[in-house]
Amino acid sequence: METVLHSDALARFGHALSDPTRTQILLSLRSGPGYPSDLAEKIGVSRQILSNHLACLRGCGLVVAVPEGRRARYELADPRIGAALVDLLGLVLAVDPTCCPDAATEGCC
C-alpha cells in the first residue's frame, strides 16, 4: 500500500534529479566516493555551487559526507541509488531513445 511517505521519498528523488548539476554529481558518485574539489573540476562548476548542490543531495538523503580529517568524502547513501539511476536511465532511453541518441556509442549508462 502506497503512503504519503512513499510519495515524499519519490518527490525528493525527483527534486534531486531535476537539476543537471545534481544529476551529474549522482552519476559521478556511482563509480565510487568523491571529494568536492575533484567533483567540481570534473563537472565544471565552482566549489561553492557544488557545495550547495551537495547540501541539497544530503538533505534529500541521497549522499552522505564521510569526514576524513579536515576533508570530507562524499558517497551515495546507499549503493542501490546507483543501480536505480542506471535502471531509470535505461527506462528513459527505452521510452524516448531520441533524448540521448549517442547513448549506445558513448556508453551513456
Automatic annotation (TrEMBL):
<dbReference type="InterPro" id="IPR036390">
    <property type="entry name" value="WH_DNA-bd_sf"/>
</dbReference>
<dbReference type="InterPro" id="IPR011991">
    <property type="entry name" value="ArsR-like_HTH"/>
</dbReference>
<dbReference type="Pfam" id="PF01022">
    <property type="entry name" value="HTH_5"/>
</dbReference>
<dbReference type="InterPro" id="IPR036388">
    <property type="entry name" value="WH-like_DNA-bd_sf"/>
</dbReference>
<dbReference type="GO" id="GO:0003677">
    <property type="term" value="F:DNA binding"/>
</dbReference>
<dbReference type="GO" id="GO:0003700">
    <property type="term" value="F:DNA-binding transcription factor activity"/>
</dbReference>
<dbReference type="GO" id="GO:0046686">
    <property type="term" value="P:response to cadmium ion"/>
</dbReference>
<feature type="domain" description="HTH arsR-type">
    <location>
        <begin position="1"/>
        <end position="96"/>
    </location>
</feature>
<dbReference type="InterPro" id="IPR052543">
    <property type="entry name" value="HTH_Metal-responsive_Reg"/>
</dbReference>
<dbReference type="GO" id="GO:0097063">
    <property type="term" value="F:cadmium ion sensor activity"/>
</dbReference>
<dbReference type="GO" id="GO:0032791">
    <property type="term" value="F:lead ion binding"/>
</dbReference>
<dbReference type="InterPro" id="IPR001845">
    <property type="entry name" value="HTH_ArsR_DNA-bd_dom"/>
</dbReference>
<dbReference type="GO" id="GO:0010288">
    <property type="term" value="P:response to lead ion"/>
</dbReference>
<protein>
    <submittedName>
        <fullName>Winged helix-turn-helix transcriptional regulator</fullName>
    </submittedName>
</protein>
